[in-house]
């Protein structure tokens, strides 16, 4: 019997690397899943890859309250309930010194990474079963500062604040709320950041990042998904308001 047998999960950012790999792991453990993303083609591809009657998807912009309410209600209409919410959607923004950082890009990062998470809590919690679990994707950037990434840093620190406050509010219903904080994940987002930090020299930036990881490599998306599964399952039923770092020791510096 799987760790999420008969549970229903929402995964925002469901077409991205961490979201999709987490969806695969949740399916293997018995869950029914609503994938949420802003790009319909990406969602269709993800659903095709998963090939399961226990998967549906909803196209939604997480910065829009009506879209967030739509994906929350569609999950209940389709599967009858919500037990797990992986509040995962996020973007990296550009890499620029704060004096050169475009204000419109700052606004977009904050809208997706902070308001999107906040709206998810606002609309999903009222529809969630008591005893459920919420996992918010923060980052090692929510614990340390990284030059050129002020918007992303600010947004990922903010998600920890949302988690801590909501964990207290949801506790009377035995709903747990935690963050997962990946380090340098080997995926598209890191390729974008590496290139943004030194255009044309991304491999050199990757090598520098790895020097700062005591375990000596990037995080694999599957390793993040394993922690999310633990937090989603009843194995973590007395864990709430915690920061769960998956960074190979990077934050130790």
Automatic annotation (TrEMBL):
Query: Which SUPFAM superfamilies does the record cross-reference, listed alphabetically?
Result: NAD(P)-binding Rossmann-fold domains (SSF51735)
Parts forming coiled coils: none
UniProt keyword annotations, A-Z = Oxidoreductase
Q: What superkingdom does the record give? A: Bacteria
Q: Provide the GO MF annotations for this entry.
A: oxidoreductase activity
Among InterPro entries, the record links this protein to: NAD(P)-bd_dom_sf, Sc_DH/Rdtase_CS, SDR_fam
Pfam families per record: adh_short_C2 (PF13561)
| PANTHER family named among the record's database cross-references | DEHYDROGENASES, SHORT CHAIN, ESTRADIOL 17-BETA-DEHYDROGENASE 8-RELATED
Return the similarity comment.
Belongs to the short-chain dehydrogenases/reductases (SDR) family.
NCBIfam families under this entry?
PRK07231.1 (NF005559)
Name of the protein in question = NAD(P)-dependent dehydrogenase, short-chain alcohol dehydrogenase family
* Organism of origin: Algoriphagus boritolerans DSM 17298 = JCM 18970
* Taxonomic lineage: Bacteria, Pseudomonadati, Bacteroidota, Cytophagia, Cytophagales
């Amino acid at each position: 019997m799987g760790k999420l047998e008969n549970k229903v999960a929402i995964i925002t950012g469901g077409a991205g690397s961490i979201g999709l790999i987490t969806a695969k792991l949740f399916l293997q453990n018995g869950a029914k899943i609503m994938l949420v993303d802003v790009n319909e083609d990406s969602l269709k591809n993800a659903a095709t890859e998963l090939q399961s009657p226990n998967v549906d998807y909803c196209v939604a912009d997480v910065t829009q309250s009506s879209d967030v309410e739509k994906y929350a209600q569609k999950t209940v209409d389709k599967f009858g309930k919500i037990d797990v919410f992986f509040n995962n959607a996020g973007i990296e923004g550009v890499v620029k010194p704060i004096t050169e950082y475009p204000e419109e890009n700052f606004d977009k990062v904050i809208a997706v990474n902070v308001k999107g998470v906040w709206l998810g809590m606002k609309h999903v919690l009222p529809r969630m079963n008591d005893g459920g679990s919420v996992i918010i994707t923060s980052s090692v950037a929510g614990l340390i500062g990284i030059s050129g990434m002020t918007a992303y840093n600010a947004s990922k620190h903010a998600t920890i604040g949302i988690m801590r406050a909501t964990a207290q509010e949801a506790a009377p219903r035995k709903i747990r709320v935690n963050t997962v904080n990946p380090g340098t994940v080997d995926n598209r987002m890191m390729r974008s950041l590496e290139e943004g930090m030194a255009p044309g020299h991304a491999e050199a930036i990757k090598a520098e990042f790895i020097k700062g990881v005591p375990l000596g490599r990037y995080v694999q998306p599957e390793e993040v998904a394993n922690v999310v599964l633990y937090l989603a399952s009843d194995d973590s039923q007395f864990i709430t308001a915690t920061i769960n770092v998956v960074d190979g020791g990077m934050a130790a510096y």
